[in-house]
Amino acid sequence: MADVLSAEGIAKSFGTHTIIRDLTFAAHEGEFIAVVGPSGCGKTTLLMCIAGLLRTDAGRVEFEGHTITTPPPGLAVVFQDYSRSLLPWKSNMENVVFGMKRLENVGSKEKHERATEILASVGLKGFENHFPWQVSGGMQQRVAIARALGANSKLLLLDEPLAAVDAQTRADMQDLLLVLAAKYKQTCLLVTHDVDEAVYLADRAIVLSHRPTKVIEEIAVPIPKPRDQIATRADPVYLELRAHILSRIKSMKAAAPIM
Amino acid sequence: MNTTLRRLSGLLLFLLLWEGVSRSGLVLQDYFPPVTSILAAMAEEIRSPKFVENLLTTWTRTLGGLAIAIALGLGLAIVSARSPLLRRMLSPFVDMLRVLPPPAIVPLSIFVFGIGPKLYLFIVTFAAIWPIYINAVNAIGAPEPVLINTARSMGYGRNEILLRVRLPAALPEIFTGIRIGSGLALLGAVASEMIAASSGLGALLYDAGFTLRVKDMFALMFFIGLSGILLNAFVAAVRRWMIGWHIGLAAMGDHG
Ligand SMILES: Nc1ncnc2c1ncn2[C@@H]1O[C@H](COP(=O)(O)OP(=O)(O)O)[C@@H](O)[C@H]1O
Ligand SMILES: [Mg+2]
User: Fold this and answer.
1) Rounded mean pLDDT of A196-200?
2) Which has the minimum average pLDDT: A255-259, B123-127, B182-186, B242-246?
3) Residue B154 touches partner A, C-beta closer than 8 Å
4) Can you list the alpha helix ranges (DSSP code H) found in chain B?
5) Cα(A46) to centroid of ligand 2, in Å?
């Protein structure tokens, strides 16, 4: 499997605050990676560096063989603050079409057809002509996901997409994400502070330390797909990995009492 | 509906009080005519084609100058948003010019433009442009960061982001500027007409005051006030049409 994305020794500081220190990992094609780390450790900063929206101080991010300096084609982001990332003067449909900027050879009619199809696949059939502010927070998030998928990208970066939703919606959205990742052949990099979510979704989990953050462990999650909210969560492998990651994070906390 | 009624009832009460005081003999009716006689004077004026022509002249000057102020103000704001250096260089001039009352620039403007349509358009534009420019430049310059990052990650360049994201996102505040500017435009039109014109409501008002036609003077003041109300309603209608999304969003509480 080829590496779609690789980060090599990246570092990032804001003034005298070092946020990321020497962080290295890679994502293979078609993989679902969950990056799990405590709140405030620098997960959003890491995603922004990968997306080419922030410059790293050191190290290199490579996407499909090219070093990233500006936002590259083929990479889409669903921001943590997804509801503010939607253009309130455009309908849900037009928001998805707006994300298709790089599909230069595709006509407007075709873009709209594609947007309709993707909105349906995230469960928003019938809400195409609503404005984002006319639908619930959960639906806004699905618009943001649909918009990222519409760009026809290979790599999808998701910044804590489910942090703000209720438990039932979260479970539904997790399953929807897995379905969409398979259907649209996405390599996914999802950032979360929720260990259960990371193990449930991921083919591989990357555990980050407190700030300044670095990778403290990479763990493969050898649970077959499709996953199931009841069966997977009762799987001994799931339980063992979850316990392992939690204990790693706990021991890290003990070692860093300032947090 | 309810608020409209309440607002109208307040106005009605005020006019009734006026009528009563004027007719009571407590004040000199010559200087403080009853509302009914002012309304009669207004009715008479509106029937005269000459008056209607003057009314339309003032409206044309106001709307023309306002249109120029919007175009120039927004154009300048967009260029300033693109160039922080220009914005910083303009800022002291803006702060100085925006506090100059429109009548204060009439004499100098007469040297430059002579007396004619260009003069009135210039004064109106000058009166209206500052709030439009200031609101626009501030709003365009302080966009929602997530919105910018979103557009950047999709591959939009700086100019596209300016025109397709920052400008539409700034429209609610731009309309606030236009609303303030439209009032100042009418003010500029009437003021310049009072000083330097033989046509328009301002010129008629000056004439009526000078020749002690008190009833006509009040009637003209009413017409100017009425023009202001109409102009405000017009701007509000355009705003509703252009940024209905913002009004809907505000009515929903916040964005989510
Ligand atoms: N633009 C910035 N300037 C200065 N500090 C920042 C900036 N962005 C983030 N930080 C700081 O970096 C740290 C990590 O932030 P973030 O990446 O958002 O963490 P996480 O997403 O893991 O919660 C925080 O302490 C935050 O205050
Ligand atoms: Mg974050």
Assistant:
1) 95
2) A255-259
3) yes
4) 2-24, 35-46, 49-82, 84-97, 106-113, 117-141, 145-153, 158-161, 167-196, 201-210, 214-242, 244-251
5) 9
Domain count, chain A: 1
Please check whether residue B171 touches A, CB under 8 A.
yes
- The DSSP secondary-structure symbol of A71 reads P
Between CA B76 and CA B80, with CA B79 as vertex, the angle to 5 degrees is 80
Q: Is the pLDDT of residue B28 over 90?
A: no
Q: Which of A54, A55, A68, A101 to mutate to test the interface with B (most CBs of B within 10 A)?
A: A101
Residue A67 in this model has a pLDDT that exceeds 90? yes
Rounded to two decimals, the ipTM of the complex is: 0.92
Contacts of residues A224-232 at CB distance under 8 Å and 24 or more positions apart, as own/partner, are A225/A178, A225/A182, A226/A178, A226/A179, A227/A175, A227/A178, A227/A200, A227/A201, A229/A171, A229/A174, A229/A175, A229/A200, A232/A200
Gap between the terminal Cα atoms of chain B: 29
pLDDT computed for residue B255 by the predictor: 45
Question: What are the tokens at A229?
Answer: 């909210």
Nearest CA to ligand 1 atom 25: A40
What CATH number has the domain spanning B33-255?
1.10.3720.10
| Global confidence as pTM | 0.89
Q: Grade residue B7 by pLDDT with cuts at 50, 70 and 90.
A: confident
Range of the domain at A18: 3-255
Domain regions of chain B by residue span? 33-255
Does pLDDT of B254 surpass 60? no
Top residue of B144, B146, B149, B150 to mutate, by most chain A CBs within 10 Å, is: B150
Q: Which of B144, B156, B249 sits opposite A133 (nearest CB)?
A: B249
For residue A205, give the CATH number of its domain: 3.40.50.300
How many beta-carbon pairs below 8 A join chains A and B?
69
What confidence category does residue B253 fall into, taking pLDDT thresholds of 50, 70 and 90? low
The arithmetic mean of pLDDT across residues A177-185, rounded, is 94
Interval A9-26: pLDDT, tens? 999 999 999 999 999 999
CA distance B144 to chain A (A): 8
Compare CB distances from B249 to A48, A77, A88 and report the shortest one's residue.
A88
CA distance B102 to B184: 9
A101 touches chain B (CB under 8 A): yes
Look at residue A40 and tell me whether its pLDDT is greater than 50: yes
pLDDT surpassing 70 at residue B203: yes
Instruction: Look at residue B11 in the predicted model and tell me its pLDDT.
Output: 86
Cβ distance B256 to A140 less than 8 Å, yes or no, reads: yes
d(CA A192, CA A160): 5
Is A48 part of the contact surface with chain B (CB cutoff 8 Å)?
yes
Kindly determine whether residue B248 and residue A89, on different chains, have CB atoms separated by under 8 Å.
Answer: no
CA nearest B200: which of B210, B187, B211, B189? B189
Q: Residue whose CA is closest, atom 4 of ligand 1?
A: A14
